[in-house]
Amino acid sequence: MILELVQKFVPLKVKTFLKPYFRLIFPNKLMSVLWITFRCTYSCSYCPFCSKQSNFPQQFPIECEKSGEEWIEALKKIPPTSFYISGGEPFLYKDLPYIINNLPDKHSIIGIITNLSMPISVYEKVSKKIHLNVSFHREFVNETDFIEKILALKNRFHINVNIVATEENFDFIKNKIHIFDKNEIPYHIDPLVDNANKIHEYSIEYKELLKKYLEKSRTIKTEEKLAQKIPKKCSAGRNYYNLLPNGNALVCSRIIDYKYSPFIQEEVDESACLGNIFDGSFYLNSDDCICKYDCIAHCDRDYAKISIIKNKVHK
Ligand code: SF4
Ligand code: SF4
Question: What is the mean pLDDT of residues 303-314?
């Protein structure tokens, strides 16, 4: 409950500041990222799931997705969880409003990411005032239409805009970002990170422009060690898990990359898989795990408690 109140009433800047301390404040709170669909209305060049080179929508086609009723029945049987809903474009999954509106009381939703490409009428089916993280993709939408949609929805939801600093967004960030300020729409800018976890090589002019925004937003620079393949003690699988469109559960979203990404050719330990919530095989670990993977996903770092195991090198 406290977490939901924080989501509703605490300003974005404070929430961003508090994120690294999340597990200190809520050590045992059960969190999950629910990847309700990997289908998307866009195909962003840098997307690890839906770009032309990636193939998550083919690996998780609409046929593997479950109905809203099936999700609600399965969710009744699992421990109380705070869900962050992600994709793909989550609102492409047509029963999403049904799931949100009928979520068992023991669970809660801390936010949903959307690119806002669906018709307003789809969002209006949601009867709860939840947190929407709206991603802006200048290559697919113009700012006037995008802002009009936000203004139409801003009393129904708590809205925050995410912008990735792609080359295409340079002009927008330089000349038009003030439109969000003018309309009092909170936003943050993330650096562009490639599949090898490298921050994009920006021109001097772009770097200079981004300085003031990236300093205020989360960056990956402070936790570079976690991105190395050195052993880590991690609470993922115990107080944090990820659900896929077919109900399979994995400890974290980085493990989803390892298991399904065409850019990674490595086997995943079976211990990182937590069964399936539809066939009753879902379980949580009773202890922290020892992770040998490179940890690069923001959501994992937000929700898992991770610490480097000193004096050991993974080979
Ligand atoms: S909108 Fe989001 S999920 Fe869809 S292709 Fe772009 S980055 Fe990927
Ligand atoms: S350290 Fe990161 S990659 Fe490893 S299990 Fe934990 S969350 Fe996943």
Answer: 77
Distance CA 154, CA 112 (A): 14
Tell me which of 33, 226, 232, 314 to substitute to probe ligand 2's pocket, judged by most ligand atoms within 8 Å of the beta carbon. Answer: 232
pLDDT at 94 over 50: yes
For the CA of 237, the closest atom of ligand 2 is 5
Of 225, 230, 251, 299, the residue with max ligand 2 atoms within 8 A of its CB, to mutate for a pocket test, comes to: 251
The answer to whether the CB of 250 is under 6 A from ligand 2 is: no
- For residue 254, how far is its CA from the centre of ligand 2 (angstroms)? 7
Domain at 2-220+239-290: CATH architecture: Alpha-Beta Barrel (3.20)
pLDDT tens profile 285-305: 999 999 999 998 888 988 999
Secondary structure in 3-state letters for the chain: CHHHHHHHHCCHHHHHHHHHHHHHHCCCCCEEEEECCCCCCCCCCCCCCCCCCCCHHHHCCHHHCCCHHHHHHHHHCCCCCEEEEECCCHHHCCCHHHHHHHCCCCCEEEEEEECCCCCHHHHCCCCCCCEEEEEECCCCCCHHHHHHHHHHHCCCCEEEEEEECCHHHHHHHHHCCHHHHHCCCCEEEECCECCCCCECCCCHHHHHHHHHHHHHCCCCHHHHHHHCCCCEEECECCCEEEECCCCEEECCHHHHHHHHCCCCCCCCCHHHEEEECCCCCCCCCCCCEEECCCCCCHHHHHHCCEEECCCCCCC
Q: Which of 112-116, 152-156, 258-262, 265-269 has the lowest mean pLDDT?
A: 265-269
Is this structure's pTM higher than 0.85? yes
